[in-house]
Amino acid sequence: MRWDHLAETPSTPQSGEGALFGMSAVRTRTFDTPEFRGVTFHEVRARSILNRVPGASRMPFEWTVNPYRGCTHACVYCFARKSHSYLDLDTGLGFDSQIVVKVNAPELLRRQLGSRQWQGAHIAMGTNVDCYQRAEGRYRLMPGIIAALRDHANPFSILTKGTLILRDLDLLLQAAEATEVGISVSVGFTDQALWRTVEPGTPSPERRLDAVRTLTGHGIGCGVLMAPVIPFLGDHPDQLRATVRAIAEAGATSVTPLVLHLRPGAREWFMAWLGEHHPYLVRRYERLYAGGSYAPTWYQRRITRLVHELAAEYGIGPAGRGMPRRIRPEPEQGPALPLGQEPTQLTLL
Question: What's the pTM value of the predicted model, to 2 decimals?
Fold first, then answer.
């Protein structure tokens, strides 16, 4: 495995280790508990925790923090699978079970936020792998990360499928007193059978929507990223209606649909899953995604239009493009965005 670019002190050619770290620098652990059975954790001390998003990216933010690499959510469509190949790790089962933990993330972030070079830009979390995946229950990195952001009044946002975010409710409320905070929960569909096969390591859609309900009940404005909308499996108008209705009933402040995209790395894993579970759809997917990682524009627009129409019917609307949302709104707010505004196709999932 290649650890050079993750380590606090990089190895050198003189060390004789090449691209590898000695066991004193990378600690590999397993835990004999049901929730972590079959999972290996590689504990590393990172050199940096603030990651600059490439200029060519479609992301509406410039900086991210990712305390983990790999994800036990095991979503078959996850675009971040390709990143595991940079460490010479498998992008299939290895991505789901070989988890890199940046154990020094909270103190490292606090130090970097205090640097004179840091200008206080918005920081997005959960845009690569979920910072509230099951590993967070053991390593508890997010409380220290949120506290650092709170203490430096640095704006941030969190996207998650994990209900563990409720553990940090008090910290989020404190941070919202100091800065702009955006919270979004990802719920692409409410179909139980689909959830169990494509997102086997995640809390159920109902539990995620319960988390939205709890957050809103405590005055925390929480949007829902309706992602991914999966062609031919989760895009029937009745399915879209059921999902938007459930999102509205949970009290979400916004709903933003994103159609499944299949980058290299994720594409191969997803198509293998599709061939096993829905072989009759393989040719349809090959035609739909013949142009690359994204579904055709006409298809994306159709899904967006349907979801926005349903959102208007149920009294919710799309989120502002790439804007953080204050958890406790100021007394005077600007006008809401029109319901028909076309969102940018982001590459979050």
Answer: 0.84
